[in-house]
Amino acid sequence: MGSMQQTLEQSADLLLETHGLCKSYGSVAVLQQISIQIHSGEIIGLIGENGAGKSTLLKCLCGITRPSKGDFSFAGHNYQGISVTRARNLGIVCIPQEFNLINELQVCENIFLGRELHTALGLLDRKAMRTKTQQLLEELGTDIPAQRAVKDLSVADKQLVEIAKALSQSCRLLIMDEPTTVLNDAEVENLFQIMKRMQQNGTAILYVSHKLREIKKICNRVLILRDGLLVCDSPAAKWTERDMAERMVGRALNQVFPEKCQQTSDADAILSLDKICSGDVIRDVTLTLRRGEILGLAGLPGSGRTELAECLYGIRKISSGKLIFAGKVRHFSHPGQAVSAGIACLSEDRQGSGILTPFSVRANITLVSLASYCHPLIDQRQEKRTAGKYISAFQIRTPSTETLLQELSGGNQQKVAIAKGLDSNPSLFIFDEPTRGIDIKAKSEVYSFIRDLLDKGIACILISSDLEEIIGLCNRVAVMREGHLAGFLQDENITEKQIMYLATGV
Ligand SMILES: Nc1ncnc2c1ncn2[C@@H]1O[C@H](COP(=O)(O)OP(=O)(O)OP(=O)(O)O)[C@@H](O)[C@H]1O
Ligand SMILES: [Mg+2]
After folding, report:
1. Which end of the chain is less packed: N or C, by CB atoms within 10 Å?
2. What is the model's pLDDT at position 354?
């Protein structure tokens, strides 16, 4: 592997070279003296903790931001900073961390936005755009209809559309900022096949992910950023996942998952569902959840996990069946009612409904719990104290409680979203993909936080596409298939194999 790596490096052409790139926001240096080289046909992993500067480096390369100092050369030409259009014309294509799609438009309209195909007569060639879109999506192993409006897609499907959009352009350097956080294993596998094909055709790929197993699997070389500095540049084969994680955080790491708590079979039931249905999306779901218990909700994407959570949180209408929460039969018709009853929900789509990026960290954390800060005027000092508490508990990287959320890195925004849910003091917390996009150290912080919630008697429902997470945290797992419960697994029966067996039925 090592020698193959060397030959690859020697024979391939140098495509991109950065020379001492720096980026500062005000007095904060986010990137310091970054000098890297990328050759055609290389897949390079870029890793680092939340806020290390990964997205910022990518943004400098694809023209979204301008470096404060330094320059880079691409295919032999020197640039101090380029525009997005220029980058695209050069063949630098980016799949951004936060989606860049227009919700009201169809999938194919989004994919060809600004680069529409025309007929010989100069008219829009809708048919060609539809066909091409369908083809791209098929290659990614999905059957999303080309004419579906983006707003009607799940988060995973939006991600696939964003990937298809990138792949529809001719590209010499593909930049991917955490493209797989919401994808399932099969979708990731398809994506990797496509990446390998592109690599064989000479495309270079710069790949950011917190999933170190993926980095090891697909990348030739790994770059590690720590606090804006490049601390490592070496062949991927050389490192174990643990090595990479330790280099990232700069110290030895403890175990990621906390001890599981003892099953409390005599605790009160906090939630009972009796034959809940919602149209034909959720069918006859019956289950009970006790205080202090964490129930995993597993299943393939589209199996109804998120939809079931939406029923509990008052976003989706329950068409028949009974929901009993904290001893009372409930009919939540909007999330406000669920929140006042004591349910918190961390939605998988943090951009869509989780948080308000133009507002401060403080305002976001107290968004749902604001009533408890009004005496009767809003007590900002109390709000700031609370925000400060979460900032240090989760080590949220922000200059202050008053910083706008849009200035935080993706993973740090996710931590704020969790803090927001916790501050509403819930008796049931629904986590939908809680560790999406957060680094390994922050993950273990979130896990021990979930563990603390359980010790306090709060019940949790965990929806995650990361089976390791479900297996590592849950006492009991409900597996969904096509809108109904395919079965429950308990304790040592919670294995990847059993979950997949119930999820697919084969
Ligand atoms: N527009 C901005 N204004 C001020 N600071 C910013 C801005 N954009 C990013 N930052 C800061 O730059 C630092 C690096 O952010 P960046 O998004 O590059 O991190 P990242 O490595 O991609 O992290 P993550 O894994 O969480 O996505 C963070 O501390 C962030 O708060
Ligand atoms: Mg980022």
Report:
1. C
2. 74
Looking at the domain assignment, is residue 349 inside a domain? no
Residue 231's alpha-carbon distances to 37, 53, 221, 222, 466, in angstroms, are 14, 12, 13, 11, 28
Closest-CA residue, ligand 1 atom 25, reads 50
For the segment 419-440, what is each residue's pLDDT rounded down to a tens digit?
998 898 899 999 988 887 888 8
Tell me, yes or no, whether 401 lies in a domain: yes
State whether 386 and 465 are in the same domain. no
Could you tell me if 104 and 195 lie in one domain?
no
Mean pLDDT of 439-467: 88
Which residues lie below 8 Å from residue 441, measured CB to CB, with a gap of 6+? 49, 245, 248, 249, 253
For residues 267 and 400, membership in a common domain is answered with no
Domain finish residue from 396, 425, 454: 425
Instruction: Count how many domains the chain has.
Output: 4
Which ligand is closest in space to the CA of residue 409? Answer: 1
User: Residues lining ligand 1, judged by CB closer than 6 Å?
Assistant: 25, 30, 48, 50-56, 97, 397, 407-412, 439
What pTM does this model have?
0.78
Q: Hey, whose CA ends up nearest to atom 1 of ligand 1?
A: 407
Give residue 298's pLDDT.
Answer: 92
DSSP-assigned beta bridge partners for residue 294: 460
Look at residue 162 and tell me if it is in a domain. Answer: no
Are 439 and 394 members of one domain? no
Tell me, rounded to whole angstroms, the distance of Cα 160 from its chain centroid: 13
Do 279 and 320 belong to one domain?
yes
Please compute the mean of the pLDDT values over residues 50-64 and round it to a whole number.
94
294-299 and 476-481 as β-strands: parallel, antiparallel, unpaired?
Answer: parallel
Helix or strand or coil: residue 424?
coil
Contact in structure between 206 and 56 (CB atoms under 8 Å): no
Q: How far is the CA of 152 from the centre of ligand 2 (A)?
A: 26
pLDDT band at 448 (very low <50, low <70, confident <90, very high): confident
Measured from the CA of 58, which atom of ligand 1 is nearest? 18
Domain membership of residue 306 as a residue range: 254-342+426-506
* 294-320 per-position pLDDT tens digit: 999 999 878 999 899 999 999 899 999
**Mean pLDDT value across residues 446-467:** 89
What does the pLDDT read at residue 253?
65
Residues in Cβ contact with 449 at an 8 Å cutoff, skipping those fewer than 6 apart? 393, 394, 418, 422
In a domain, 347, yes or no: no
The bound ligand whose nearest atom lies closest to the alpha carbon of 438 is: 1
Last residue of a domain, one of 249, 277, 309: 249
pLDDT at 56 over 50: yes
C-alpha span between 294 and 285 (Å, rounded): 17
The verdict on 311 and 436 lying in the same domain is yes
What is the whole-number distance in angstroms between the Cα of residue 437 and the centre of ligand 2?
8
pLDDT digits (tens, 9 = 90+) for 392-409: 988 899 999 999 999 998
**Residues with a beta carbon under 5 angstroms from ion ligand 2:** 55, 97, 410
**One domain for residues 316 and 239:** no
